[in-house]
Amino acid sequence: MIESMKKILPLKKEHQWEKYEPSVRVINDLENQMKILTDDQLKAKTTQFQKQLHNGSTIYDIREEAFAVVREAASRVLGMRHFDVQLVGGLVLTDGNISEMATGEGKTLVATLPSYLKALEGKGVHVITVNEYLARRDYETMGPLHEFLGLSVGLNVPQISQTEKRAAYKADITYGIGTEFGFDFLRDHMVKDLNQKVQRPYHFAIVDEIDSVLVDEAKTPLIIAGKMKSSANLHKVGAKLARSFKKDHDYEYDVETKSVTLTENGMTKIERAFAIDNLFDIEHQTLYHYMIQAIRARVMFERDVDYIVEDNELKLVDLFTGRLMQGRTMSDGLHQALEAKEGLAISEENKPQASLTVQNYFRMYPSLSGMTGTAKTEEKEFQTVYGMDVVEIPTNKPVLRDDRPDKVFVTKEQKYEELVREVENVHQTGQPILIGISSILQSDQVAEYLDRAGFSYELLNAKSMEQEVQLISLAGQKGNITIATNMAGRGTDIKLSEKAADLGGLHVIGTERHESRRIDHQLKGRSGRQGDPGSSQFIISLEDDMIERFAQVERDRKLKSIKTGEYGQVLNKDLHKFIDTVQKISEGSHYNIRELTLKLDDVINDQRKVIYELRDKVLQEPKVLSLLSPMVNDFVTYEVDRHCPETIVPENWPLEHLEAELQRGIPLMKKMTLSEYSYETTDDVKQAVRPTLDAYLLQLEEAVTPAIESSWKQGAVMKLDQLWIRHLEMMNRLKEGIGIRQYQQEDPIRLYQKDGLDIFGHHFYQIKREFVILMAALCRPAKKGENKGGKEDV
């Protein structure tokens, strides 16, 4: 088996294979030893491994034997035995890398090897999939294997209770959806009591369809939002004004990055409309935000493509699946801008209360690994962002699929006419056909052409997940025609009937080149699984979205010299190279967007760590004064520096204002009049305040009771959350100004980092200030009037 695998592997990957060859041989040599063990003896291996790890062994000391145990247990419990290539896949995952394995090679079974091994450390393993159906399927099918070996298994999906979530995370191995793990992290940092948290520290994660989770979903951050009233009138006025804006005159729209930037004319038009002098003054930030959202709503989103209007309500469309996203809305006023554009009633806004990019969430795992059939084209990104290599795993059997050269046509109409001819020719033989489409709009177009030709077909663009999986699994039956979005039923194998296999297997038709070669490879990979026969044919046009978006001018230039054959098929061979180049440009553009998203979030991520660490300290600190006392000192230092700067002569310092501010946090300051003293430096003022400050801190030690501590913790967390939400809003506004800074030829990232740090410094002090003032307010009622001990009021 090993020698045959060597023949399948590309020569350049031989070194990577040789790295795992000795381990595979050891696992194979152990197989007979495992077979003669009773069930109880096999189960006892788990306890044996755990003891070895407790006594100082590492997972690499027990890796081969543990894999052999899982292989034998899988054979007994599931009736499935790991192939050698699956062992290699498991070894790659254990090393924290990506196993690139073709469709049908049993990735779900591969994950049982490293998940068992790493779970033995007792720190938890997360097995992450792209949707709830696959998470439940893997939990139900692979869970019994782990339970047989004595490990606990949990399932983390939306809509389960906190108690159920806590139990799921407590399990040795937890199956679930990637976004749900991320949202749980954010929710854990919004709790009012540490006992309400559900997660434990991260250890090891295996991400199935890792390119979908870490690349396709990486452009959209995870956001938890709360409702707030929005200015309906401002949205309506903004929508009306945006209708008068002309592209390139009033605003610039970058089709590649889908970003909007105001021109000088656009800025002037807004300033005149609202009778203001400077749109970028701090008091006009909200107006600027509303206008940018109004323009985005007008130019970036198309009705019946990105959203529909149904029953006087705006509903979003998932462009990956074609499904309506029931109950989902866009945040930060963009949804309301779309409602204003369509003349609908303006709903409440979703204001972000916590956010996190997919990249920064998964970078929190000390060890991260993944599986997919298509990762090689994104290897650079996986290496730079996550430190993971992509290792191509050979198929268990050679791939027999016939991938035919693209057929290129000038117009979409010619393309769809050729699609009908292709379907007609293949369908006559009884060979099953899968037509891949990229959007709900395109599925309607394809369906219309097939209807005219009288074909019966299954259309997968708005079914439930269970129906979708069932229909996609039947796409390999003789004579079936299935139209499906790229993401429909992903993770589900299409199995051929015997008759279909004899007829040549599944024939896949691609209706356009996608904006990543990876998606094209995924579509082709639906056919030819596990050595099955199959074929693929892409039928595309020069009017397809990718070319319109990234190479419209170059395409128009090339049209002048195009030669066409029968039915309008393009004969110029250089056009194929041109399309390949455009696709690479598209990939680069999407990578740049994800890179920018990550760079921007890296700024907030550092701030998030500080805030979340402080929040946890507030909730878990048994003696709050140990946390608060340094803040009282910071409060005095900051306020004295602010009111008494060295740049102003002491005679002009506003000492009365300083007294009033200090009294809010240190009530004892009421007994002191700063103007009675003379000062030469700022430090002189601090020295004058020091005795009163020290006396206050001593009195706090006696005044703070457990009841006050509890009240302070709840109030402090509330203040922190309010200021953090305000900070996120200001950072979003700052982010919106990036386009203007590019226009002004400044480095937008550097300025965002600098300004973001300034804003955070201000807000972080405000948090500490609120903490100090809160404690002063809580202690006052407890010490009103004369104290029995004769001490002064706090």
UniProtKB/TrEMBL annotation:
EC number of the protein: 7.4.2.8
Record GO terms (molecular function): ATP binding; protein-exporting ATPase activity
Positions of the Helicase ATP-binding domain: 88-252
Entries under PROSITE patterns matching the protein: HELICASE_ATP_BIND_1, HELICASE_CTER, SECA, SECA_MOTOR_DEAD
Annotated ranges, domain Helicase C-terminal: 415-586
Localization annotation: Cell membrane; Cytoplasm; Membrane
EC primary class: translocase
Domain SecA family profile, first and last residues per copy: 2-571
Catalytic activity field: ATP + H2O + cellular proteinSide 1 = ADP + phosphate + cellular proteinSide 2
Keyword terms, alphabetized: ATP-binding, Cell membrane, Cytoplasm, Membrane, Nucleotide-binding, Protein transport, Translocase, Translocation, Transport
Membrane topology per record: Peripheral membrane protein
Biological processes, Gene Ontology terms: intracellular protein transmembrane transport; protein import; protein targeting; protein transport by the Sec complex
InterPro entries assigned to the protein according to its UniProt record, in alphabetical order: Helicase_ATP-bd (IPR014001), Helicase_C-like (IPR001650), P-loop_NTPase (IPR027417), SecA (IPR000185), SecA2_Bac_anthr (IPR030908), SecA_CS (IPR020937), SecA_DEAD (IPR011115), SecA_motor_DEAD (IPR014018)
A Pfam cross-reference name: P-loop_SecA
CDD domains hit by this protein: DEXDc_SecA (cd17928), SF2_C_secA (cd18803)
Classification via SMART domains: SecA_DEAD (SM00957), SecA_PP_bind (SM00958)
GO CC, one annotated term: plasma membrane
Subunit structure: Monomer and homodimer. Part of the essential Sec protein translocation apparatus which comprises SecA, SecYEG and auxiliary proteins SecDF. Other proteins may also be involved.
Entries under HAMAP family matching the protein: SecA
Family membership noted in the UniProt record: Belongs to the SecA family.
Stated role: Part of the Sec protein translocase complex. Interacts with the SecYEG preprotein conducting channel. Has a central role in coupling the hydrolysis of ATP to the transfer of proteins into and across the cell membrane, serving as an ATP-driven molecular motor driving the stepwise translocation of polypeptide chains across the membrane.
Protein name: Protein translocase subunit SecA
